[in-house]
Specification:
elongated, 5-stranded mixed sheet, alpha+beta, single chain, Immunoglobulin-like, 4-stranded antiparallel sheet
């Protein structure tokens, strides 16, 4: 782990929300986050500030990095996620060598950083942000990448010129593999406004999987962020299909629990298999997630 000294914000100070997904960057990391490229480089926050175990440092996951707060030095520590992922790589396939116009050898590890990777490394103070290179450039699933102690650089030729070198999403990967269940246990869910959410999970069930004559069918929907926080203010669009016909209805907005209940008041003949296709939309009408379920009408 690598220490970045000189932070002045205590971890219990008021956080500042800077991310579109509504999760705040903790005050302890705000200065570092801004100085090292913010959302464009480090990605959006994945979690709020939390402590995983007794005596451990407060930490926060971002899409591309994990930061820890050291109260003893009032500094930021970068978790070496590059070391973590490289150790789990089944096979290292070197990428085809390029004719380099600029390169830098790191004697400590014996690896070279070159061209666009080197320009990114130098532009974002790579000695602190990334640490030493620990691999050559590799070809992993068709992507040219290079591992460093704290992270990974990816070459994305399809992106705009300023975005062709990006940090790999190791923060999200480590959180998903190692910490997601722990975080759910230690961090109570809190509502997140749909306006800042870009992806959500949609859970749904109907009151009666078999609907008898005279019964009212109710649809129960819950919209959650991938981290398990309820999404408030989302609208659920429901396509109801039966007997070759399709009708579409929309719910009212989800509440602070991410939930909404809506009646399905359709004149459906008996003996029909009804298919529901649900799409959650944020307050701007952007799709967040979807699911499907069925029920059957009876006599």
């Amino acid at each position: 782990m690598f220490l970045v000294a000189g932070c002045t914000a205590e971890p219990d100070a008021a956080p500042t929300a800077v991310a579109p997904n509504g999760i705040p960057v903790a005050a302890a990391f705000q200065e570092f986050y801004t100085a090292y490229g913010g959302q464009d480089v480090l990605g959006e926050p994945v979690t709020e500030l939390f402590t995983a175990g007794e005596g451990e440092r407060p930490l926060q996951y971002f899409q591309n990095i994990r930061l820890e707060y050291d109260a003893g030095t009032d500094g930021v520590i970068i978790t070496p996620l590059g070391v973590w992922e490289l150790a789990g790589l089944n096979e290292q396939i070197p990428a085809q060598a390029l004719e380099s116009s600029a390169s830098r050898l790191f004697p400590e590890t014996g690896y070279t950083v070159q061209d666009e990777f080197l320009r990114f490394y130098e532009a974002y103070n790579g000695e602190v942000l990334l640490g030493q290179p620990i691999s050559p450039q590799l070809n992993v699933d068709g992507v040219r990448m290079q591992y460093f102690e704290n992270g990974r650089l990816d070459w994305r030729p399809e992106a705009t010129a300023e975005r062709r070198v990006q940090l790999g999403r190791l923060g999200q990967a480590h959180f998903d593999d190692e910490m997601a269940f722990t975080y759910q246990d230690v961090q109570p869910a809190r509502p997140v406004s749909s306006a800042g959410v870009t992806e959500a999970e949609v859970e749904a069930y109907v009151k009666a999987p078999i609907l008898y004559e005279g019964e009212e069918q109710l649809l129960y929907v819950t919209v959650l962020t991938p981290e398990g926080n309820p999404v408030s203010g989302a609208v659920v669009e429901v396509s109801v299909s039966f007997d070759g016909q399709t009708s579409t209805v929309r719910s009212t907005a989800t509440n602070d629990l991410g939930q909404v209940i809506m009646p399905l008041d359709f004149d459906i003949p008996p003996g029909q298999q009804v298919v529901l296709h649900l799409t959650a939309l944020n307050s701007n009408g952007r799709p967040l997630g979807e699911t499907m379920l069925t029920y059957k009408t009876w006599w």
